[in-house]
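Hi all, long-time lurker, first post. I run a small reading group and we've been trying to get comfortable going from sequence to structure in the token notation. Rather than ask abstract questions, I figured I'd post a concrete chain and ask someone more experienced to write out its structure so we can walk through it together at our next meeting. Sequence below, copied exactly:
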Amino acid sequence: MPASSRLLDGHELTSPYKSLHDSYVSNRRDSKCPVSALLAAGCLLVLGILLAVAVIETLKNEDRIHEALNPPQTPPCCNQSGPIEQSRHRRAVIKAALSSRAGEHTSCFHAFASKCPVSALLAAGCLLVLGILLAVAVIETLKNEDRIHEALNPPQTPPCSFLSSTIKNRHIAHPSLQYDACESIAVFEAWFLVSQGREILEEFKALPSRNVSVRVVTSIPTLAPNSTDLKALKEQGVQIRRVNFGRLTKGILHSKFWIVDGKHVYIGSANMDWRALTQVKELGVVIYNSSALAADLQKIFQSYWVTGRSNASIPDPWPSDYDTDINEERPLLLNLSGVESKAYITASPPVFCPDSRTRDLDAILSAIRGAQDFIHVAVMEFYPASKFFHHHGYWPVIEDALKRSAVDRNVSVCLLVSCGRETDPAVWPFIRSLDALHSPSDNINIAVRVFVIPAGNQSHIPYSRVNHNKYLVTDKVAYVGTSNWSADYFNTTAGVALVLSQDASGSSFHQQLRAVFDRDWSSRYSHPLADLHRIHDCAFSTSAPSQHET
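-- Answer (accepted) --
Happy to help. Here is the structure in token form:
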């Protein structure tokens, strides 16, 4: 959730999203100009080729006519031809003349070429050169744009992988789950608006006609109060409930997961909207054919579903139907892409967890305390305080665990946080103080970097161009969640996470997640804190001192 959002009386969220109706369309110009330029380049190339062909054909025809009118001289003893030879000669002249006339009547290129072939060839050459130069210019422009968007679209993982680490992979993974569904889909926190999200919305609307049961849970309050997408889904037979987390917990529903046919599962950072598909860097996990894991996640979905009834309350305690046999103490044993794995699903807030469910925060702290070699964290927002209620109340739970790991056990800690134009500057003092502990000479290795995606000409889109990831990878476990790292997300806001432990060798999910972190940490979009005064697309740039001030 954006840092500037606050829960108000009546459980509404103030947000620029309120100006984004379902008719909203991004006024991007960069997507149109390159296409028009490529079309112009193509037209110039085609015109040049046609003119060159016309010149060549005209010259060929002129040679035939000249040859027919001026046949080669034969020796005196052989210069007489019979009627047959004379007839062939006349047909050649007529055929060449007709060919020339046909060219004049069918194409202006032949007319121009026949009058001035040298000029026509020069014109054709100019058109070809202009077309090639324009095409090269467009290609170079697109290459530059690709470099900017490289952070949003890094290389895809191997086909056998179940890691969805990019916008592109997520866009493929979600519809594939959807198209294959034959029984049911449970999904929530869904709002689509227009553009790329509209494609998924239309597919959802069509599912009930295929006898696929679709249930959607969303939040009250919401950042998209003007959206009519849920109404459109409901009209097509989709079952929808809205959970009033503002009343129940003074939080929101921030979970993002899919359950398909009781056997396929997606958990990740992405909301169900067009920005997540095109403007925000996301990461999630898709696991196929695990009915046990899907059934466990279904219990969390069902807890949302029952509290979505009118005037519902939170059970205390939760009925035994919501208990789980899968948790940190008893993880699920499963084979993922040929790798023996242990997995369990966590949840927050605590009031939505039966005693048998591992809390989200507890899983994070356990992973940090169990690390022996390294801890790599990528999260949009690291804020050791309460943000929405009891604003700025200090909450050092995760921060202290990271510091103790680095100081007491000499574990290497790398924290990659995101920064965009709407990022809350109040985060800056906390990440700066953590980075200040870095002292290799004392064997204390805590490094903090900031991931900044250039806004380009998309600065008008609110809360876009950020690294929305929320994951942790250590030498022991991999954690992929849906919550930012501040107090409210664990105490009052609904979220889930998948925790996996595997053999770290080979092409396991653990290795893939570590490779994603290493790639992002070393990319051109990752900046040390000392360089942020030069990065205009980061809200921290006004807070970060320049080097001569430090």
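A couple of things your group might point at:
The two ends are 32 Å apart (CA to CA).
The domain at 151-549 is CATH 3.30.870.10 (Endonuclease; Chain A).
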